[in-house]
Amino acid sequence: MVNDSEYFRQTEATRVRILSEALPYIQQFAGRTVVVKYGGAAMKESNLKDKVIRDIVFLSCVGIRPVVVHGGGPEINSWLDKLGIEPQFKNGLRVTDAATMDVVEMVLVGRVNKEIVSLINQAGGAAVGLCGKDGNLIKARPEGREGIGFVGEVNSVDIKLLKSLVNNGYIPVVSSVAADDTGQAYNINADTVAGELAAALEAEKLILLTDTVGILKDYKDPSTIIYKLDIRQARELMDSGVVGGGMIPKVNCCVRSLAQGVKAAHIIDGRIPHALLLEIFTNDGIGSMIVASEFNKNKGVKKIQM
User: Fold this and answer.
1) Burial class for 81, CB neighbours closer than 10 Å (0-12, 13-18, 19+)
2) What is the DSSP secondary structure assignment for residue 213, as one 8-state letter?
3) From start to end of 93-158, where are the E strands?
4) Residues 47 and 268: beta-carbon distance below 8 Å
5) What's the whole-model pTM score?
6) Structural domains for the chain
7) What is residue 8's predicted lDDT score, i.e. its pLDDT?
8) Residues 153-192: pLDDT tens digits?
9) Range with the largest mean pLDDT of 21-25, 218-222, 229-233
């Protein structure tokens, strides 16, 4: 039977060992930019929210440069309900008329964004809240489909403001609202925004926090997770229907960012405590990592069996 002092000694020894094992990864990624799309259960459940925030601050403290991008669908729905506006969706996209766009901007920019900023600051970080309008960070254009209103796509990115912030030790927190050249606001998918910012920043990693374990060979069986794959394999999985539904835009976002120079893209389960640290600072990680090629020069990337 282990007494309290022995248990304490073993626990502390484990903590020190874990920190020591993380050192090569800290050295490898120090000074590099990591873009994190924050969403899903990790945003809604308070116990998970605290751990994600602490992970983000930890990354900043060890010299990695995190940039956080967030959505806020459930919060938007809640406020639409309070205001008597019925949420509508078409082909998986939120129908965003003028009234809904006002609510989207109020919620994402004025509430969700500032809450995340406040939590990071309380945890010892130095966060700054932004949306696509700030410093012309993101210029939007209409998504193009009829009947969906002010749903947009990323037309262009200007990263001067972001680079100034990360170079001075700040953690940018970006909401996925942007405007076109006329000033009209658009609601843009947060995964898409994260991918385009990661590409523009030449990020080391794009990490999407989701409510799934990763890319699965059988979507009903979490044990069929594919830990490592490349762009070609990812496209094959989408073409064959293995990857479908809501996972398609996430995988497409990863593929597009990799094609523009991001080193690796990760789809991980934000329901797992400290998912970010487990993915970045361990050999195997916990989710699916996509790279440009299985012959990529990055260390630790191995050919997978499909």
Assistant:
1) exposed
2) S
3) 93-94, 127-131, 138-142, 151-157
4) no
5) 0.90
6) 66-202 (3.40.1160.10), 204-306 (3.40.1160.10)
7) 54
8) 999 999 999 999 999 999 999 999 999 999 999 999 999 9
9) 229-233
Measure the CA–CA gap between 203 and 95, rounded to whole angstroms. Answer: 32
Q: What are phi and psi of 106, to 5 degrees?
A: -60, -45
What whole-number distance in Å separates Cα of residue 116 and Cα of residue 69? 10
Asked if 291 and 303 count as a contact pair (C-beta separation under 8 A), the reply is: no
How many of the other CB atoms lie within 10 Å of CB of 11?
10
Catalytic residues: 37, 40, 73, 191, 250
- The chain-wide mean pLDDT, for the chain, equals 89
Q: What are phi and psi of 33, to 5 degrees?
A: -95, 135
The answer on pLDDT for 66 being more than 90 is yes
Neighbours of 28 (CB within 10 A): 16
How far is residue 128's CA from residue 174's CA, in Å, rounded to a whole number?
A: 9
Give the Cβ contact number of residue 267 at 10 Å.
Answer: 27
5 pLDDT band (50/70/90 cuts)? Answer: low
CB-based contacts of 112, cutoff 8 Å, min separation 6: 43, 70, 72, 75, 175
Q: Can you tell me the mean pLDDT for 263-286? A: 92
Strand residue runs (E) in 143-284: 151-157, 171-175, 177-179, 185-188, 205-210, 228-230, 264-269
Place 6 in a pLDDT band, splitting at 50, 70 and 90: low
The torsion defined by the Cα of 86, 92, 98 and 99, in degrees rounded to 10, comes to 20
Distances in Å between the alpha carbon of 218 and those of 61, 241, 253, 272? 38, 10, 21, 20
| Neighbouring C-beta atoms of residue 94, cutoff 10 Å | 21
What order of strands is seen across the sheet that includes strand 228-230?
Answer: 127-131, 171-175, 65-70, 33-38, 205-210, 264-269, 288-291, 228-230
Nearest to 251 by CA among 202, 299, 191: 191
